[in-house]
Each structure stands twice: as C-alpha cells, then as structure tokens.
Design a protein that fits this description.
Elements lengths: L3 E7 L3 H10 L6 E4 L13 E2 L13 E11 L2 E14 L1 H12 L5 E4 L4 E4 L3 E4 L2 E10 L6 H5 L6 E10 L5 E5 L1 H4 L3 E6 L3 E8 L6 H14 L10 E6 L6 E2 L2 E3 L15 H16 L6 H22 L4 H12 L2 H6 L3
Parallel strand pairs: 1-2, 1-9, 2-6, 4-11, 9-16
Antiparallel strand pairs: 3-5, 4-5, 7-8, 8-9, 10-13, 10-14, 11-12, 12-13, 15-16
The chain binds flavin-adenine dinucleotide (FAD).
C-alpha cells in the first residue's frame, strides 16, 4: 500500500467523512483511518437540529417531529416548533456518508486501523506509518491530533440507552433544583426511543447522573439493566480548526455545543469547511464562522443560567415562552 498521501484524515465519524466527501474526485490522494471495523455506530441520541442545512441526508433515513413535551420541575408543557428536529441512527448516518465515498479513486478508507502517534509529517498506526502534506484530526472528543497540538479539552457527558418506542415526539425534562442545567431527553427513532441524561461533570457527578437516569426510567416503567446505560464525552472547548497544515474538525475541534451536547451538525459542517479550505487555502471558511456564531449564542444563554442558580426554574419557563416565538426559533437555527 502507498504510504505517502496528500491528506490523512483520522476518524471516520460525521466530521471525517464530511472532509473526505468534500475531497472526493479531486487530484489529492486521501487516506481515511478509522479504528473501528464498522463505520457509524456510536453511543449517541442521534438528534439533528438545523436539519435544513443537512437536507442532503435522505429523509427516509431519519425520523422527525415538531412536537415537544417539556417538564420543568415536574410541570408539563407542550411545544410545537415551526421546523422538525430529526433523529438518525448513527449506523445509518455512517453507512450513508461512507456510501458516498465508496469506490472513490482518490480516497483509501482503512477500517480497523488505529492512529497511535503523530510525527512532524507522519502518522504511526497499528498498520504502518503514513506520511501527509495535510493532517485532519476528526478523531472525536479524546482526539490524538488535538493532544499532538498541545491543546487541552473541556467536556460534558451524555449517558443513554435505547428502550422500546414510546411516542413520536420529543420529551425534555429539567429540574434545576436537583440537576442544575443538566437535562434528560427522550428522542424518537424509527423503531425505538433513546433516553438519556446530559450533564457537566463539574456540576453533577457521573454516579449521581446515572442514578437520576435510572430513577427516571423506572418511573416510566422501562426495565433496563444498568449495563445497557452507556456514555461518552463531548468536547466543547473550541480553540480553532486550522493550525498550519493540521486541521481539527467536529468534537476534536471542541465544536460540540456546551449547553445541549449537540455535535453532529457542527461536525458535518466543520468537515465540509475543512475540505474546502484544503482545496482552496484562500477560502474564508464562512460556514465555520456561521456555526461558531450559533455555538456562541447557545453558550451565552447557558452562562446566564449558570450565573443565577436560584432562579433557573424561572429562566427555563421564560426560555420556553420565548422559544414559542418563530423569530427566536430562527435566531437559534441560523
Ligand atoms: C450519549 C451521547 C448522546 C449524544 N447525542 C447527540 C445528539 O442527539 N445530537 C448530536 O448532534 N450530538 C450528540 N452527541 C454528540 C455527538 O455524538 C458528537 O458531537 C459527534 O459524534 C461528533 O462527531 P465527530 O465526527 O467529530 O466525532 P465522532 O463521532 O466521535 O467520530 C470520531 C471517529 O474517530 C475514530 N477515532 C478516534 N480515535 C481514533 C484513532 N486514534 N485512530 C483511528 N480512528 C479514531 C472513532 O472511532 C470515531 O469513529 C451525543 C454524544 C453522546 C456521548
């Protein structure tokens, strides 16, 4: 196998696959390295807001609803949004994205291959050493490439499990007196519901979050054995995407949203932007600027919540009243 490539991408999640897709059918030789032998599956609730920006994903691969049931301190509210939030199984998303580059002449996908270390112009993997002109770290929240750049990370945690399908809409549960700004979600998928809790480990311990989720599941009559609850981290510590000839995309770049933990749409968008930047070094990355603006808006709201813990319940109710306004929905979708 050739061992010199124009571009090496580490990680075939949504971000890495989006970079590869952008570079498909160009004159650049691309190596995409993925440690898992199957592309796609990941512990994730699969929610995609901002669906219109990713409308290339075939609708039949997704489930969507405009209807949301929201519990704030056990009081129930209903909300209908102008646009659906979609869900997609990560296996389906991975299969769809990988399908787009399958057979591509300039892209080599090496599955079951783990990047172990990075040198000045080469990547050491368990299948050999490969050298690059450009390196893209799309290797998730514990990114090796990010570490190589000497960047730390700040993470929040999600714990979740799949249960039998409960309903077609979304459910959100917040209880600031008990959980601060953490929340529990129920996301509808084609054949199941994903239920989980998202929390900042600085404010809620993993042990406590797991106990809260188990109690929630029991109250809703879902019998789950504890090992079915699985989790992962999201990195929201954005420090840049371009570091000379090294790029960071998605969670590796810290692009997840701190308040919500959402990261798929940011991963897809940043991957596309990095692909464009590699092809045209003068490209201004306007799409990246747009998603950073959105991430900042979301994080500003969270900082207001974090500044006033005693009135978080009131702030959640106020936010709900505002989210009913179409212009607010648009403001947080653009
Ligand atoms: C419980 C939970 C629920 C979530 N729910 C949602 C949700 O509903 N909506 C949403 O938008 N986001 C959600 N997220 C966040 C979302 O999963 C991430 O933001 C998203 O997956 C980031 O995509 P990525 O491509 O940057 O990284 P990843 O999807 O993590 O992909 C990274 C890839 O790199 C590979 N890799 C890592 N290291 C190496 C290595 N050394 N060598 C080779 N390959 C490597 C991994 O195997 C993986 O395939 C959730 C996260 C968690 C933990």
């Amino acid at each position: 196998m050739e061992n010199r490539y124009d571009v090496i991408i580490i990680g075939a999640g949504p971000a890495g696959l989006a970079v590869a897709e952008e570079l498909e059918n160009t004159s650049l030789s691309v190596l995409l390295v993925e440690k898992n032998s199957v592309i796609g599956p990941k512990i994730c609730a699969g929610g995609i807001t901002n669906f219109k920006k990713h409308s290339e994903i075939p609708p039949e691969k997704m489930q969507g609803s405009k209807n949301h049931t929201i519990f704030i301190e056990d009081k129930k509210y209903e909300l209908t949004l102008a646009d659906s939030i979609r869900t997609i199984s990560r296996a389906n998303l991975g299969e769809y994205q990988a399908g787009k580059i399958t057979g591509s002449k300039n892209i080599t996908l090496l599955k079951g291959t783990s990047a172990k270390s990075i040198g000045p112009e080469s990547v050491v993997t368990d299948k050999g050493i490969f050298s690059f002109r450009y390196l893209v770290g799309a290797d998730g929240s514990a990114s090796l490439v990010r570490k190589h750049l000497g960047l730390g990370r700040r993470v929040s945690i999600g714990l979740c499990c799949d249960v039998e399908k409960v309903h077609e809409g979304f459910v959100w549960y917040v209880n600031p007196r008990e959980l601060g700004t953490s929340y529990i979600w129920e996301f509808p998928h084609h054949d199941h519901t994903n239920i989980g809790i998202y929390f900042d480990p600085k404010h809620l311990s993993a042990k406590r979050a797991r106990a809260v989720l188990i109690t929630y599941l029991e109250k809703r009559n879902h019998r789950i054995s504890p090992h079915e609850i699985r989790g992962g981290a999201v990195n929201y510590d954005f420090r840049g995407c371009v570091f000379g000839n090294i790029f960071l995309a998605g969670d590796a770049a810290g692009l997840a949203s701190k308040p919500s933990g959402e990261g798929i749409s940011f991963a897809l968008a940043s991957g596309r932007e990095i692909g464009k930047k590699i092809l045209d070094p003068g490209y201004e990355m306007t799409g990246l600027k747009r998603i950073l603006k959105l991430k900042k808006r979301q994080e500003k709201i969270l900082s207001i919540f974090e500044s006033f813990p005693p009135i978080q319940g009131l702030l959640f109710r106020l936010s709900l009243a505002l989210v009913r306004k179409r212009w607010i929905q648009r403001y947080f979708a653009n």
